[in-house]
Amino acid sequence: MEGGYGMQGGFSNGSGPNLSASVEAKATGAGKQVFTTGEAARLCNLSQQTIIRCFDSGRLRGYRVPGSRTRRIPRGELIRFMKGHHMPLDALGESETVMLLVENEQETVEDIERIAQTIGGYSMHVATNAYEAGVLTAKLEPEVLVINLRLPDLDVAAVCRSVRIANGETGTRVMLLANKFRSEEMKQYEAIGVKYFIRKPLQMNEFSEVLRSAVNI
Questions:
Q1: 24 or 118: which leads in pLDDT
Q2: CA dihedral in degrees (212, 143, 198, 130; nearest 10)?
Q3: Which of the residues 41, 85, 128, 143 has the least number of beta carbons within 10 Å of its own beta carbon?
Q4: Is the pLDDT of residue 84 over 70?
Q5: What is the pLDDT of residues 127-139, one digit of tens each?
Q6: What are the residues whose beta carbons fall under 8 Å from the beta carbon of 81, sequence distance 6 or more?
Q7: What H or E segment, with its residue span, contains residue 207?
């Protein structure tokens, strides 16, 4: 069996220290970069066999230790898996996914707030003008940045260049909103790494799926 299970509670033999604190620390994943299937199972509140099946099917990516059948799961991949299944990240020492919405249309703001609340795990912030967009982007370093491409006086390309746009598991996922996109402007933003273009009026199911797929790459 991979990755032994730790004791669930502490004990004292009367002459030594209570071990609950050290056992509890080992049961969490804060700061840990690679996990066994047993550790991943505890963090996900799943059986170890379920984690192994997810690993073997490719739903949970990782690698095998050379010369053995032992599986190892990198931290970033475990976070992706847990977010994709709406599992709490507290034990990993991770906070909610930070989303910044740059939008001045209240209906769209309310729609996206509702979607984020339904999915769960998001800390959402809203900028309604170019000044707020610049300040909050620098302050928050959001993992998800949703921008109304037609917001007055906003240099969207400059905002995009101010963040490290995601290319893989890390960086900021940038999504642009507009009633219509011109092919030349889509090429312009694709050239700097933007992958998500969402048309208004917002379709709730479509946006939910795009958001889930973007965050859970």
A1: 118
A2: 160
A3: 85
A4: yes
A5: 999 999 999 998 8
A6: 44, 54, 59, 60
A7: helix 204-215
Token pair, residue 150, equals: 């037609």
For 2-31, what is the HEC assignment? CCCCCCCCCCCCCCCCCCHHHHHHHHCCCC
pLDDT at 140: 87
What is the predicted pLDDT for the residue at 141? 85
- Cross-strand partners of 146: 101, 175
Going from N- to C-terminal start, the domains of the chain cover: 20-92, 97-215
Tokens representing 97 are 């996914």
The pTM score is 0.61
| Contact predicate 2/36, CB 8 Å | yes
DSSP string, 68-137: S--EEEEHHHHHHHHHHTT---GGGT--PEEEEEE---HHHHHHHHHHHHHH--EEEEEE-SHHHHHHHH
Going by pLDDT thresholds of 50, 70 and 90, the confidence category of residue 106 is very high
**Exposed, middle or buried by CB within 10 Å (0-12, 13-18, 19+), for 156?**
buried
| Cα 190 from chain centre | 22
**Assigned token pair, 128:** 């309604």
pLDDT tens column, 141-179: 888 999 999 999 999 999 998 888 866 656 899 999 999
Per-residue tokens: 153: 């006086």
C-alpha gyration radius of the chain: 21
Query: CATH top-level class for 97-215?
Result: alpha beta
